[in-house]
Model the fold of this input.
Amino acid sequence: MIEIRGLRKSFGGMAVLNGIDLSIGAGEIVALIGRSGCGKTTLLRCINFLEDYDAGEIKLDGEVLWYRQLETGERRRYAERDLARQRQRMGIVFQQFNLFPHMTALENVCLGPRFGQRLPAAATEARARELLARVGLADRLHSYPAHLSGGQQQRVAIARALAMKPQVLLLDEITSALDPELVAEVEDVIRALTQEGIAMVLVTHAMSFAREIAHRIAYLAEGQIAELGKPQDILDRPRDPGLQDFLRRIR
Amino acid sequence: MEMTLFDLWVLTRAASISLLLALASIAFGTALALLLTPLAFAPWRIARILYRLYVFVVRGTPVLLLALLVFYALAAYWGRISPYAAGVVVLTLYLGALFAEVFRGGVLAIPRPLWDLSKSLGLPRLSILRRVVSPLVARYTLPPYLNVCVMAVKASSVLSIISVWELTFASREIIERTLDVYRVLGVAALLYFLMCFAIDRLGRRLESRLAAKGFAGERL
Amino acid sequence: MGQYRAWLDAYGAAYLEAAAWTLAIAVLSFLAALIWGAVLFFLRLNAGRWGERSVDAYVQVLRNTPVLLPIYLIYFGFPLFGVLWPAAVCGGVALVLQNGAYICEIFRGGYKAIDRVQHDAAMSLGLMPWTHFRKVTLPQMLVHSIPALGNQAVLLLKDTSLLSAITVVELTMQSKVLTERTGTAYAPFLVAAAFYLAMVWALEVLTQLAHRSVRWR
Done:
């Protein structure tokens, strides 16, 4: 469903992404792991074009996103309006400062469908309530983020991402900034989502969680996917020496 | 009528007077602030209240009003006094409050752990002050300190209203004589700009020198 | 004590009128400066490199020159082109031009204070630029700017005293007139100072209230 081909990105002379090829099927869950600075967050942010990339192609359901390929071989970026529409097909949850502090949980979740997708207010609110109930925050609809714990904020963020009915959910180390006792509630929500058949790409350090829910794990090093495979293979029988070293360090 | 080259020369001389006034006030003001800031941290409540009162009054009153007050008050007690003297006194009192707040901010910005660390190393109080606190305070307070210095140059223009002959006074004189408003004020603005800009540049240079010496980073 | 009472009865009205002028000029100029500062900020953000550079130049010039210069420029200079405004208007416009520059910088600070992730989150929801600005950026920017704006209001209030140099009868001018008329050494200035301090104190309280009343902090 998502096809990434030959993705390259340099920053200040350094190659951050050095030719990434990755295919993600509908409903598939892929975890991205690797050392800090290996490019996994950059890759995630390129997928929904929060970061620009220098070369390569990203396709969703066969449609090329973000750039239009011209006959001359050049590429031209889509107009702002089209980019916005394309972004609405994906949801993203960040590590920190996810929510809009000046809006309640309910308003946060309604914002995207209401003003991004321009859906009617009543329907948007009904769906928002339902989503917030699903992540276990039915009683906190009118709370502001400052009055919510980190775990609660992340759950609202997940509800907000889901409100757009995305085809894929991008998760950028969503539990790394949480106190340990709050991690479980967020992981529970994600675990429940795996039943819905929504595709996910998650950047994570939580190996046990990745092993549990991911269909495949990709290990990134030096801007490339050094190893890719099922969780058991990657985590128990790593072949790449860099990966072996990495796993040894984090145990 | 047009302004002449002589007028230009006059303006430049007047600018140097402005600069001198500012520099003198900065020097005295800094000295005053070094006496005031400790009051803000004194163990006696009365001292802290006096400090806050002083800062509130001086910062809450327009500089012009302060200047008029000081000028007329000094004249009442000492007869005719030089506007320059009154001017420097006013600016000193004004800048003293501003600098005191800058220094106070600097002391407050030192992270608590640093005090604890120095104490646990068994350093004597004075040594802590000299080797640990002061350099950090200096590094942190340099930008706002220079900001106040720029304000000093701009405040000197207010003194023109109590007949201190400096750049703004001279500009008004020439304007009232020649009506060459735009050119005269253009020159005056340029001269002020150069003085303020020079202070800003000097500051950047000092900042990078301090940074090279190892006072790393933006803020504490 | 009695003489002070008599003095107050005689001149209290004059002071109140002068204080009213000070307040009126300050309030109107501040509101106008907010608008002008917002315009400058928008230009800086949206008019490309030309916009950014010219606004920066404008701000730098006004930040590094004393406020009396624009005041004299308009008061003495505009009549040369046939523009004959009353002194208070000349002064007010000069104050707006000056403070607009500072307010533009305050808005910039408020804008920069917004965490980058906010911007990413809004983009990922597919919000169009104007909606993004209106619903996400602007509210946060304004709240972050409140303390600095309050401070600027105090500065503007104090700068109204400079209008006495161009014959506007506000508090400072009034106290100067009274000093010369009654021959008292400096008491009128103290009274004027008391007025200013009261106004400044009120402004500071208002600013704190405004900042605290934002429910979502």
Residues 99-165 of chain A form one domain. The two ends of chain A are 33 Å apart (CA to CA). Chain A touches chain C through 33 residues (CB under 8 Å).
